[in-house]
Amino acid sequence: MANPTTEPEIRGEPCHAAAWQAVLADAIRDPSELRRLLDLPPGPAAPEGRFPMLVPRPYLARIRRSDPQDPLLLQILPRPEESIATPRFSADPLGESAARRGPGLLGKYPGRSLIVTTGVCAVHCRFCFRRHFPYPSHDAEPEALDQAVRQIAADTSLGEVILSGGDPLTLTDCRLAELSQRLARIGHLRRLRVHTRMPIVIPQRVTPELISWLRGTRLTPIMVVHVNHPAEIDTAVADALGRLVDAGVAVLSQTVLLRAVNDRVDVLAELCQRLVDLRVMPYYLHQLDRVAGAAHFEVPEARGRALVAELRARLPGYAVPRYVREVPEATSKIALA
Ligand SMILES: *Cc1c(COP(=O)(O)O)cnc(C)c1O
Ligand code: SF4
To answer: In this structure, are residues 18 and 172 in contact, taking their beta carbons and an 8 Å threshold?
Structure first.
């Protein structure tokens, strides 16, 4: 981890080491230790390859002990099924290599450009479509970010920048504040969006410094949080989301439809209602991207459509997320229901 004292000061705010950085550094990386902490029997050794287990303790605390089928556990524990090759599940299912506009910049959809700020995440979700990506296991080089900012400045068709990764909120607030200031100086930009799982995984990440740069930018701040199950939202997470909304950030959610995790209407309905109660608007329900090693998480589209139809029958319209899938070369995500 970078030494925070070497970072520049932004708007008079010192870049002190934040509590969340220690929480991230203290994450569980050994599956046998995880099993021991959760009172689970020793399991089969699962090949982790380039995508090792990573589970911070605040997330671990929400996993039920002695339950091998816990929906949070299933998302983070490497399983032998990950090494099963399945036809039509590939290393780059979205053709993102083709959408690369430079190191650290993806331009796939009109008007929006996505900066890959870092390869680092706060948790390694076993179904992640980026699990085989040749992302660096560290933050983007300053030169790559410089180039991304220059390319965005040169393209007046862009109105919105999406900070993604990895998880952009694994970067320090100093670096993010500086990046947001540079983006705000680009006249044609209107909105700054952050795609993150951090407020769900390590809610301590929603610091006063984070709120400060989100509030302070000329750009309209939007945050899309990745959340898959109501049990992921404990009191600390609810508070963190509340601080973001109170600060004037439009907070939306995205959820991946996952077998045995959230493929029941009761679970999805509770998730959506809990989010709406917290003033977070359900945005996307994603059909799983067909990434090699994740086939055991796939829910058939017909089942997904039936689930969404049931949600629509039960919930107010604004509480029902758009069920979509990502298709290489399409100019938007494709609606499935
Ligand atoms: C999903 C995605 C976006 C954002 O799409 P919206 O429909 O605007 O939420 C932008 N760029 C890439 C590469 C994406 O995958
Ligand atoms: S947080 Fe997002 S990018 Fe990181 S492993 Fe999970 S799904 Fe993938």
So the answer is: yes
Nearest partner of 197 among 160, 241, 239, judged by Cα: 241
Q: Is residue 324 part of a domain?
A: yes
Asked if residue 199 lies in contact with residue 240, where contact means CB atoms within 8 angstroms, the answer is yes
pLDDT digits (tens, 9 = 90+) for 142-160: 899 999 999 999 999 999 9
Q: Which CATH number characterizes residue 265's domain?
A: 3.20.20.70
Mutate to test the pocket of ligand 2, among 96, 116, 123 (most ligand atoms within 8 A of CB): 123
Instruction: Say yes or no: CB of residue 108 within 6 Å of ligand 1.
Output: yes
Cross-strand partners of 323: 285
Q: What are 81-140's pLDDT values in tens digits?
A: 998 899 999 988 888 888 888 888 998 899 999 999 999 999 999 999 888 776 556 788
Encoded amino acid at 170, one letter:
T
Distance 106 CA to ligand 1 centre (A): 10
Preceding peptide of 166 cis, ω within 30°: yes
Two tokens at 80? 């032998």
Residue minimizing CA distance to atom 6 of ligand 2: 125
Per the structure, how many domains does the chain have? 1
Place of tokens 């949080």: 225
